[in-house]
């Protein structure tokens, strides 16, 4: 029996993500929470003939905690998306929503795996961690900032550059750092299969590919022209990442290969080694992790990177530090009396 909850389930990401989770045979109960329209989305999805029983919840009568009660996994795309000209940092308004949801999780399902999609991930994950710490229930092995869309984009864009777009699923590019502009650090030198030297060694081609991976989200924001940011690709990436966590925890399948997520570096052995590799005392970083029944089992080293990547790492670290600090020191407004 596995209970999954989507917070922000009626949104652009929330709806297709809820659909994909409804199709996941490991999930037997699916709760959909939103401040609007969650009942309609739940009624619609409930007609699909898969095992998961779907229920919708709105805020009245402590709806968030009723939705979350006893959850095993909570996926959170709640909040405001970007409009043209905005960076993810401009979405810090979402911090308050994240703090409120974290408090509800602390009360209703303190042992759940928490997958944070709401931007700016670089700051909202620290907001979750600090709120859970205050409630005395923070388990860093169970908290993930979902950066998997960066990995998905990296495979797709690399395959396109190599003239083999149909081979996108075969390409694996580790992407570490954070989830915003220059904090997104694709490790092209570690790509599998190896990138031919006429691409990797061509500065202009390489810079263009790195830039597309870092700022790929802007292509969608621009094309949607005011109607939001990536939703369908994010839903697919979020559902795929949830599947990795669910398989490791409940499906009896440890991840076949490491997965990447933005995690607390104190989560497990390995985090301190990453801090040494990046040469900075950052508490959060997107890294390769191994998953098991209790979440993160091991944080893996970044490994060897080349000179171009070292330069990018410097820029990523410089921007990540203040974003982490902003989230970690966020003070939610006191409730209105
Ligand atoms: N991690 C990533 O890679 C990634 C990628 C794309 C978008 N995002 C982020 O995901 C978030 C959602 O994007 P979207 O396009 O689905 O936005 P959206 O506006 O379409 O949907 C957000 C949903 O959240 C709901 N919501 C607002 N406040 C809430 C609260 N307090 N509790 C529960 N639900 C609440 C809204 O009613 C809405 O249905 C944004 O912050 C966006 O920047 C992250």
Index terms:
single chain, Rossmann fold, 6-stranded parallel sheet, 11 helices, binds nicotinamide-adenine-dinucleotide
How does this model look, in words?
The structure is a single chain. The protein is of the alpha/beta class and 337 residues long. It has a domain at 3-146: NAD(P)-binding Rossmann-like Domain (Rossmann fold), CATH 3.40.50. The protein is 42% helix and 15% strand. The chain is built from 11 helices and 11 strands. It has helices at 14-22, 38-45, 63-68, 94-108, 121-134, 148-161, 197-200, 203-224, 232-250, 271-278, 307-328; strands at residues 3-7, 29-33, 53-57, 73-76, 113-116, 143-145, 175-177, 184-186, 259-264, 284-292, 295-299. Strands 3-2-1-4-5-6 form a 6-stranded parallel sheet, with helices on both faces. Strand 1 (3-7), helix 1 (14-22) and strand 2 (29-33) form a beta-alpha-beta unit. It is globular. The model has no long low-confidence stretch (mean pLDDT 95).
């Amino acid at each position: 029996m596995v209970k999954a909850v989507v917070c922000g389930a009626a949104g652009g990401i929330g709806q297709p993500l809820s659909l994909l989770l409804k199709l996941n045979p490991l999930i037997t109960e699916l709760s959909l929470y939103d401040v609007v329209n969650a009942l309609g989305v739940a009624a619609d999805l409930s007609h699909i003939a898969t095992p998961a029983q779907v229920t919708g919840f709105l805020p009245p009568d402590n709806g968030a905690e009723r939705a979350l009660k006893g959850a095993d996994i909570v996926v959170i795309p709640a909040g405001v998306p970007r409009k043209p000209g905005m960076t993810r940092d401009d979405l810090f308004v979402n911090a308050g929503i994240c703090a409120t949801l974290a408090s509800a999780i602390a009360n209703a399902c303190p042992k759940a795996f928490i997958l944070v999609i709401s931007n700016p991930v670089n700051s909202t994950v620290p907001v979750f961690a600090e709120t859970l710490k205050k409630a005395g229930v923070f388990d860093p092995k169970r908290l993930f900032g979902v950066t998997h869309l960066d990995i998905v984009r990296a495979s797709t864009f690399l395959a396109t550059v190599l003239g083999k777009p149909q081979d996108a699923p075969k390409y694996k590019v580790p992407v570490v750092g954070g989830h915003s502009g220059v904090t997104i650090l694709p490790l092209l030198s570690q790509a599998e299969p190896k990138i031919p030297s006429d691409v990797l060694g061509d500065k202009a081609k390489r810079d263009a590919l790195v830039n597309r991976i870092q700022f790929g989200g802007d292509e969608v924001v621009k094309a949607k022209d005011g109607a939001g940011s990536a939703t369908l690709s994010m839903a697919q990436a979020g559902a795929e990442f949830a599947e990795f966590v669910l398989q490791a925890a409940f499906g009896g399948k440890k991840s076949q290969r490491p997965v990447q997520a933005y995690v607390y570096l104190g989560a497990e052995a390995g985090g301190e080694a990453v801090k040494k590799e990046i040469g900075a005392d950052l508490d959060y970083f997107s890294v390769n992790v191994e998953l098991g029944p209790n979440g993160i089992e091991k944080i893996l080293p970044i490994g060897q990177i080349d000179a171009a990547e070292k330069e990018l790492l410097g820029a990523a670290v410089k921007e990540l530090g203040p974003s982490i600090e902003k989230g970690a020191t966020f003070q939610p407004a006191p409730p209105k009396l």
